[in-house]
Design brief:
This protein is of the alpha/beta class and 271 residues long. The protein has two domains: 179 residues, Molybdenum Cofactor Biosythetic Enzyme, Chain A (3-Layer(aba) Sandwich), CATH 3.40.980; 84 residues, TT1725-like (Alpha-Beta Plaits). Helices cover 40% and strands 25% of the residues. Helix 3 crosses helix 4. It is elongated, with a radius of gyration of 23 Å. The relative contact order is 0.12.
Length: 271
């Protein structure tokens, strides 16, 4: 089974000073995992051309198949993701007619709705149509800045705006064909088992044994603060090309988990 590996790069000074919480990374991790891929690394970095370029170079050097960036596509000078991407890859930054058409339509729509005082494409708005050569704009159904898709050296790079609603709109809309092509019929599933103990160390022998006996299943006990309510969760996760095979792996692991925790005198509450 060939699993698509991905990295997420969240860009923005506001993330690193704690002014804005990065929810995009968690959302993307869940979606990539659900498609059968695996996120190998997620990084928070500032609006800094050199750091953005270094981070992209490192992801490419690792042979990452799918690189997702969030943030820095807007109209202000500190929105420098696309310029930094062009710099990193030695590509010219060019105005995209397709992106310009998307922006024209968006600002006309905003103007008609009364969201902006004029529909004109000012220099600041046109900035959002400047893409690295070869970049394909992705329609933004919520905001203004298009996303960008660029293929380079065997990797696919996708740049999203930082506004979560815009990122989700692009991911679930314009990015759909790429995702179907990249992930195909990849399948991911997880089962959650709740047990009656508040001590993760008591569970450890069963969890460790299960992981050794079922290498195709990721087994993780979920620690929580010690307290009067003795309940912990164990997550069983598997991915593959065939959903029936994934289900078979999980069923076998779940059966062995039941026997292993029972041998430790631990009751299964649910799952």
């Amino acid at each position: 089974m060939s699993v698509v590996n991905a990295e997420i790069i969240a860009i923005g000074n506001e993330l690193l000073i704690g002014d804005v919480q990065d929810t995009n990374t968690a959302w993307l991790c869940a979606r990539i995992t659900g498609l059968g891929g695996v996120v190998r690394r997620a990084t928070l970095i500032p609006d800094d051309r050199q750091i953005i370029a270094e981070t992209l170079h490192a992801a490419l050097a690792r042979g990452t198949q799918l690189i997702l960036t969030c943030g820095g596509l807007g109209p202000t000078d500190d929105d420098m993701t696309l310029a930094s991407l062009a710099y990193a890859l030695g590509l010219p930054l060019l105005e995209s007619p397709e992106a310009l058409a998307m922006l024209t339509e968006s600002f006309q729509r905003f103007y008609r709705a009364g969201y902006t005082h004029n529909p004109d494409l000012t220099p600041e708005r046109r900035k959002m149509a400047m893409l690295p050569a070869g970049g394909q704009p992705l329609a933004n159904p919520v905001g203004a800045a298009p996303g960008v898709l660029l293929r380079h050296a065997g990797s696919v790079i996708v740049c999203f705006p930082g506004v979560p609603e815009e990122l989700i709109g692009i991911f679930e809309g314009a990015l759909g064909p790429l995702l179907r092509d990249l992930f195909g019929t990849g399948c991911y599933d997880e089962w959650v088992v709740e047990v009656r103990t508040g001590d993760e160390s008591q569970l450890a022998p069963a969890v460790n044994r299960l992981q050794r006996d079922h290498p195709g299943v990721y087994v993780k006990s979920r620690a929580r603060p010690y307290g009067a309510t003795p309940r912990l969760k164990i997550t069983l996760c598997a991915r593959g090309d065939d959903c029936r095979e994934v289900s078979r792996l999980l069923q076998a692991a779940r059966q062995d988990l039941g026997a292993a925790v029972s041998a430790l005198g631990i009751e299964i509450i649910s799952g």
